[in-house]
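Fold this sequence, please.
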Amino acid sequence: MIPQSPTLSRQARRFWQRAESAIAEGRSNAAIKALESLLAEAPWHAEALLQLSVLKLDVGDFRSGHALGLRAASAPMRSADWGVMVMEHLVTLGESGLVLEMCRQAAPASWGSAANLARVAQQLSRIGAQRQAREFARAAAERDPGDATAIYFHAHMEVIFGEVERAASLLEHALTLHDDLIDPHWLLSRLRQPDPDRRIARIEQALERLRPRGLDEAYLAYALHNELHEAGQFDRAWTALERACRARRATLRYAPADDDALFARLLGWTADEIDSAKGHVDDGLAPVFIVGMHRSGTTLVERILGRHPEIRAGGETFDLAHQLRRASGLYSTLVTDPRIVARRQSLDHAQVGRGYLDAVRWRADGRRLLTDKLRQNFLNLGFAAQALPAARFIHVQRHPLDTGLSNLRTLFAHSCPYSYDQHEFIRYFGGYQRLMAHWHEVLGERLLAVRYEDLVADPEAGAQRLAAFCGLPGAPGMTAIAESTDPVATASSVLVRDGIRRDRGGLWRPYANGLRPMIEAFSNA
């Protein structure tokens, strides 16, 4: 925690010390009480405001946490370190506009160390401002060419922009600077570089030398799997994948029954609720939500739509979830919180819609339609339909075995805790299928089903169908996605640069022996 200001009174200093002790001991309510007492005496104390905001979110109080966070952010930026802390919190609060404004007012040269520049780049990337994030990531690497972590994040941003060879060179350099750094092995393994044997041996040596556990073991084991998979050594690749999944699953607190309960609650949503809601319509901007399971082809659909001159590809945005937190006053790290679902009839849906469009408007860059490709929003379709009557919804489906294997093979940062165990994936997938069948019934013609296999078999027809669903005529070049220079910040960031590929079906077959649970569960798909 940042030291208290020397201008605090003796009593205020005591409150600060009590808050620090309570936080260290995990007593959130006691820390909140101490900080509230401090702020009663010194309402200007920015550090206390920020810490109290964090604690309010921890106990689920978004409304208070949001107000306190904005007060902390309004204080002068006394140092680069303080500015980064505030920025990270503003991202948590969903204040992407304020984050962008901070970066407009303070150029990269103002942020001090390479570590700070890399942290700013990471926050900009989190809100979808990839071009600005790339600028800060490059500045971080230039500020300290010996900072392996800054070099790594620079490489990460180059991958997002399709500069694969440049990224590979940077990652190799990062490993020469710090051979115990874990992440570069994983990112390199996704780049499909030649000479995999050298990297396979290096990863195996790192696993033996470092004997990592938890997330570090998962990163290295996934890296090993990826390299072995590209080398066609499928038996060894499966062994590495099983190790990776076990390591990642062990780091997660996930209860499948919680998802079962959420699905059951969402199935109670009715067409009458949606039809009677008074949402918000903006004649200048309407969203197109692209949803589905992870690794189902949603990035491909967005890339095709983003080639249309009247549609802007917005990428993945959590802005709908942020607006639901504002409307309900509840905070959760979940994209969809069951408590907010339970309160849905008391929400101001028009304000949710208005707030959402205001938050994403910068992404649209003047276009009339904007895609929002946060796949998990299939859980939020009821909210979106009520808040945004002009919104369109596209549901992308892919063969469950290809989807399932691809989920197992992907190391997700935060989402998809069900994706590291076949039985948990099968259970979740069943809930997803039942929920999507319900949304198709409830939303009718507002929700378009797109099969990935049909789209790649006849891309031109698929592109025309997508454009027509968005109320637009088709446009030349929609399927020429390899020509797009737009950033792609998903697990598909490398593959989509190849254009539309027709060889991605049936990738599960080399792993058929290990995939018996999924094969039996999806035998009728």
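The radius of gyration is 24 Å. DSSP finds 26 helices and five strands in the chain.
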